[in-house]
């Protein structure tokens, strides 16, 4: 929960320099800004699209294994903005008291390990396909237990093979590159991996829970961006791959560019887990259509586009959820109302022990 709250600390799109000297910024050209915004837009929608379909596979595997998933309750969703606010303000105070360099040194080490694992989870299937059939693969099983006899229980029970080790080694090299250079490309590789894993593994099981969560974060985002300077200050001080960045002066300075526009991962993951729920709802209807998923996906694109347009027009940091929440909740709900699916949508529940109303309706129609 704390990690996710930390991600929420940068839930706004803003333009910032990678250096402390704001006056040293090279003014961005219209072409450079267009390239930066378009790149951030693509880097935002790609993890959502991939993560949503990976979430379907993940939930299917959980059902087949009989594993009970960890889902967010209504109470958890209501409390989340409060917890996120406390975490955000706590980070702000820490940056005011302690040296920013020392704090970011600890954060760099922490996110190095998380980033390598997250990127390896995404890259493993790709690397596996690239390895030839002659690759000497071998499976391993690591078990760490505690206690004896009837009190014996597993602490770690992990199966892996040599392909996993190759993937870990390749991603480890990217991690070393990030540690050494803090290059924005390495940051983005880790950030995209975090976003895909977040959409895949974090779970909402009810649309009503998603509405409570997004509604609370809607207020949270507006308050901390427009009401105070806390979020913008933390976003500029927090040097970790929990945001996607792209230089606006890349046309002038190439890969050495430093005048960045950025997008917090929370603006991707939070709407993304709701859109992933819409995809699973689509599949529960058994209509051979992913209508509501694409409605949510298009709504996200419209909301993100509106955020970038208003950011460019007013030249001021914008709370992205101010535009993303109404679009992502409004369009799918409106379409469900017009199609007569709104009751089924709000009654749908992942991993429910009883058949969902949507599925019962489909089965009833088939019987008739």
UniProtKB/TrEMBL annotation:
Protein family membership: Belongs to the peptidase A22B family.
Q: Does this entry carry the keyword Nucleus?
A: no
Which molecular-function annotations from GO does this UniProt entry contain?
aspartic endopeptidase activity, intramembrane cleaving
Residues spanning the membrane: 34-56, 77-97, 103-123, 186-204, 211-235, 255-279, 291-314, 320-338
Q: Mind listing the GO biological process terms from this record?
A: membrane protein proteolysis; signal peptide processing
What subcellular locations does the record give?
Endoplasmic reticulum membrane
InterPro entries attached here? Peptidase_A22B_SPP (IPR007369), Preselin/SPP (IPR006639)
Give the record's keywords alphabetically: Endoplasmic reticulum, Hydrolase, Membrane, Transmembrane, Transmembrane helix
Source species, please? Candidula unifasciata
Per the record, the major location class is endoplasmic reticulum
One Pfam family of this protein, by short name?
A: Peptidase_A22B
Q: Taxonomic lineage of this organism?
A: Eukaryota, Metazoa, Spiralia, Lophotrochozoa, Mollusca
Among the entry's GO cellular component annotations, what is one? cytoplasmic side of endoplasmic reticulum membrane
Give me the ranges of the annotated region Disordered. 349-368
Membrane topology, record value: Multi-pass membrane protein
Query: Would you tell me the protein name for this molecule?
Result: Minor histocompatibility antigen H13
